[in-house]
Amino acid sequence: MSYLYVTEHGAEINVDGGYFVVKHKDGMLHKVPKETLESVALFGNVSVTTPCIKQFLQKGIAVSYFSPKGAYFGRLESTRHKNIKRLKKQFKKTEDEFFCLELARKIVYAKINNQVVVLRRYDRHRNINIASEISMMKMSMQRLDEVTTIDGLRGFEGIAAKSYFKAISHLIDPKFEFKGRNRMPPKDPFNSLLSLGYTLLMYEIYGEIENKGLSPYAGFFHQDAERHPTLASDLMEEWRAVIVDSVILSLIQGQEISVDCFHKDDETGGVFIDNTGMKIFLNKMENKLRSETGYIQSTYKMSFRKALWHQVNQLTSAIENNDVDMYNPILIR
Question: What are the tens digits of pLDDT across the range 309-323?
Fold first, then answer.
């Protein structure tokens, strides 16, 4: 299946026979067969014709709209996956303290475990002492079994995250100076990549949540917030380091992206990626999502994208059957 990303200002998408056609400003055409297109992401001023929109809706192809800098605006999607009975069950489970706590405990444990594994992978050939940071993260993991509240889990997650990003600051190329996580707006190139990657990952999961008839806005771990898809936030936690952070570290350590691909906005003080860097990042991210993983306990390997879908399926089953043990988080090795 095809995932279409359009980043060129002024491009237009229309439909021609059995193809969706992207027309670029220089007149070049890029055709995608209708039967292969799964999803569309538009960055900046890209227009879509009305006949094309109708085809997207009829075929259930979701279209996500982003600013040129990667800020998310919204989605165009059909309503064919709505499931009111399942939604009622989901909302009921969000009020079940035991279900929420045990699901959150699984997610936070997996998130910290995966962060530790990623750190060790990238430290393998650099001989940098990050033992104290890893020790603090493992301590947080060990304490999770003692926690009896969601707030307690958030506390240990925060401690681990602080140590994790401190360790990363020692591992990356000094040109990408990084002194810790910041956002809205990001203040350096590394944070700019993190924000972009996490946004893309969140709305990758968001789409599959809706496909399963659930609401992305009714979560179990993150606090309810206006216009924030808390369930998508919940489910992306165990994948942040596995997908986004790994992609960014690979780009930087492999010198596939340069600090010259970023510029500072004088008005906000934020640092944002340019169109060249955006294309490099989107290509790397898409290749990662298409690559196979054996982390899912299954009889065959699947792509990371299908693994994300698998996790949403597991949560759906857990909600439908009122059994939190049916959700098994991703634990990489």
Answer: 999 999 999 999 999
Q: Which two tokens stand for residue 332?
A: 């990489």
Do 40 and 57 contact (CB within 8 A), yes or no? no
132-139 long-range contacts (CB < 8 A, ≥24 apart) are 132/163, 133/163, 133/164, 133/166, 133/167, 134/163, 134/167, 136/160, 136/163, 137/112, 137/163, 137/164, 138/112
Residue-wise pLDDT tens digits, 166-194: 999 988 888 888 888 888 889 999 999 99
pLDDT tens digit sequence for 79-112:
777 889 999 999 999 999 999 999 999 999 999 9
- Amino acid at position 203, single letter: Y
Is residue 90 classed as helix, strand or coil in its secondary structure?
helix
- Secondary element (H or E) of residue 209: helix 189-211
Which of 169, 326, 188, 209 is CA-nearest to residue 270? 188
Residue type, 142: Q
Please give the distance of CA 93 from its chain centroid, rounded to a whole number: 24
pTM of the model: 0.89
